[in-house]
Amino acid sequence: MENHINLFVSSVFVNNMVFAYFLGMCSYLAVSKTVKTAVGLGAAVIFVMIITIPVNYLLEKYLLVEGALTWISPKLAELDLSFLSFIMFIAVIAAIVQLVEMIVERFSPSLYNSLGIFLPLIAVNCAILGGALFMQQKEFSTVWESATFALGSGIGWAIAIIALAALREKMKYSNVPAPLRGLGITFILVGLMAMAFMGFMGFKI
Amino acid sequence: MFSSKNLKLLTNPLNLENPITVQVLGICSALAVTVKMKPAFVMALSVIIVTAFSNLIISTLRKSIPVRIRIIVQLVVVASLVIIVDQVLKAFVYDVSKQLSVFVGLIITNCILMGRLEAFAMANKPWESFIDGIGNGIGYGWILIAVSFVREFLGSGSVFGFPVMEKIGAYSIGYVNNGLMIMPPAALIIVGVIIWIQRSRTKSLIEKE
Q1: How far apart are CA A8 and CA A146, in angstroms?
Q2: For the CA atoms of chain B, what is the radius of gyration?
Q3: pLDDT surpassing 70 at residue A118
Q4: Taking CA atoms, what residue in A is nearest to B190?
């Protein structure tokens, strides 16, 4: 249990997807103009992460790593398919995003309307694929650990985008030098936020 | 082959339509791999190759791809190219491949690729698309090299792994490396400053609010 709490806290704050690894930056900068849309995208990312990362974990464990196929036949013990992981992960992510979109549309039209175009966009959000690749690197021992990591990373990303959107809403009232307006100042703002998040470094429960 | 229109495709992404500073595509990897120049250079080269060839392949296939499933077709083409690049890197420059870690895989979801495939390759002929891919790859690459030059020079006192500051004896007279430069926030601020410089030189890029 303690292990899970530690993993959760470190993936939300210390190894924050945005501030430590710069993942999902494109949509992070593009969709952070108002708090409302930021909340929508943040929720969608958390949602897709919690589903795709454990699924990819199971695929990795029972299909791709060396010796994973022994459950089919002992003859396959030497087969190592891990070079296929990129194509497998991205296919799983694209398929699950499509599936989630259809399920949400069928059972909860109000949630579907509030997430809007963000769901399909998530398939190419690097935070999701990045999460899957980090999961592969960290070599978790159980699927629950990967789920905790997914939840933490998703929440970390959502916090980051909501905070940036709130700051950008306030920034409309400040007098920024013309060439720095828009994209430039946003980069510097994210830099300052990342510095603040560096304060969590080495933080453990 | 190289008419003035095609040359424009090659030179526009360097400044006026730069993928990073103007189109805001492919930021993630641009920030993450720029601590040292060598991985940044390898990353830039990989992205140039993958954008050029994925543009070429998708543009060749563009008439036979059904519109509804185009995203997944594009992802499969890109993912296959990235697997090839990843295997080549692992075979020939293993240490760089280790430093780049997940970011080689993340070329798949690099927005430059999807952006160029959707915006250009789906509507243009193979040769133009190939040039467009190379142009955008280079536009992305030079920003990467510029950011990593600043970060490596100020943060580690070296250029391309060559210890400049040590050779000229700066440390013995009290020079100290700026530790912040190798931390993630520095990358964001340097890109912000590059955008600032670029926009004050090219006034047409200034955003109106």
Answers
A1: 10
A2: 19
A3: no
A4: A188
